[in-house]
Design goal:
Length: 267
C-alpha cells in the first residue's frame, strides 16, 4: 500500500509538468513553475548580482561586450530578440552566465581566455544557448521532482522505522539524486548549449572554429579538472573534439552569414 501511495504521489507531481522538445530535438520535462515566474527569478537574481558585485568602468571593454551580445541576440527567433541586458563585472575569474528574462553577466577575467571577438562570442552564445533551450526551467523542474520524491520516501520510511531512517534517506538520497540524476542532466545541458551556441555564433558571422580555440585556452589556463562523472561540464578534451567536428559542418552557415553582410567588428 505504501509503495502504491508513493507511486501515485510521484506520478501526480510529474503529471503537473509539461513535456517539450529542445532545439536539438531532445525531450524535456519543464513547467515546474511558469515562464513568467522563471523570468522574474532571473531578473531578481541579476539585480542582486548588480547590487553586490563591482561593475567594470572600462568603457572600451563594455562597448566590446555590448557589440558581441547585440550581434548574437539579433539572430535569435523573434520573441527571443528583445529585452536582453548585460553587465560587465570586475571579477578576475574567467566566467560568464545568462539567466531567464534575458540577462547576461560577463566577468572581466573572461578576456584572459576569450582573446578575440569570436572566442568571446563562443562564450556568450553558449550561455544564451542555456536560456533559449529552457535549461533553467528543465533543471528546476527536475529538482522539484527529486525533492518531492525524496520527501515522500523519507516520510514513508520514517513512519515505519523512525526519524533516524528519515534523516538518513534525506542525506543519502540527496547525494544519490545529485550524482545519478541531476549532474548527468547538467552535462547533457552543457553539451546541448555547445551545439546551440556554436550554431548561433556562426549565424551571427562569428567563426565557429574559434570555439575550439577558446576551450584550448580554457584548458591551458586551468589547473586540473574533476572526473567527468563528478562534473557538471563534459570532459574538456571530448568537448573540444565535438566542437571541432561541428565547426566543419557549420562552415557553410558561417560563410552564408558573412556573404549576407553579418560581419561583426567588435574589437
Amino acid at each position: 500500500m505504501k509503495k502504491l501511495l508513493l507511486a501515485i504521489a510521484i506520478a501526480g507531481a510529474v503529471a503537473a509538468c509539461a513535456t517539450t522538445t529542445s532545439p536539438t530535438g531532445r525531450t524535456q520535462n519543464v513547467g515546474g513553475i511558469s515562464q513568467q515566474q522563471l523570468d522574474q527569478m532571473g531578473q531578481q537574481a541579476f539585480a542582486e548580482y548588480k547590487s553586490k558585485l563591482p561593475r567594470s568602468t572600462n568603457r572600451a571593454q563594455t562597448a566590446y561586450v555590448a557589440c558581441v551580445v547585440n550581434s548574437l541576440t539579433r539572430e535569435l527567433p523573434g520573441a527571443n530578440q528583445a529585452g536582453w541586458e548585460f553587465a560587465l563585472f570586475n571579477d578576475d575569474s574567467p566566467n560568464a552566465f545568462a539567466l531567464p528574462g534575458g540577462k547576461i553577466g560577463v566577468n572581466t577575467g573572461i578576456f584572459k581566455v576569450a582573446r578575440t571577438q569570436d572566442q568571446l562570442a563562443a562564450v556568450i552564445a553558449h550561455e544564451i544557448g542555456h536560456v533559449i533551450s529552457r535549461h533553467h526551467d528543465e533543471r528546476l523542474t527536475r529538482q522539484i521532482g527529486a525533492q518531492t520524491g525524496l520527501g515522500l520516501v523519507g516520510a514513508l520510511l520514517g513512519s515505519q522505522y523512525g526519524s533516524g531512517a528519515q534523516q538518513t534517506t534525506q542525506q543519502v538520497g540527496g547525494a544519490l539524486v545529485q550524482g545519478v540524476f541531476l549532474l548527468p542532466n547538467s552535462r547533457t545541458q552543457e553539451s546541448e548549449a555547445d551545439v546551440v551556441g556554436q550554431r548561433l555564433m556562426a549565424q551571427a558571422g562569428f567563426d565557429p572554429q574559434q570555439a575550439v580555440t577558446l576551450w584550448e585556452n580554457m584548458i591551458s589556463a586551468s589547473s586540473g579538472n574533476p572526473p567527468e562523472w563528478l562534473s557538471t561540464h563534459p570532459d574538456p578534451r571530448s568537448r573540444i573534439s565535438e566542437l571541432r567536428n561541428r565547426a566543419g559542418s557549420l562552415a557553410g552557415t558561417y560563410q552564408q552569414a558573412r556573404s549576407s553582410g553579418r560581419k561583426p567588428t567588435c574589437g
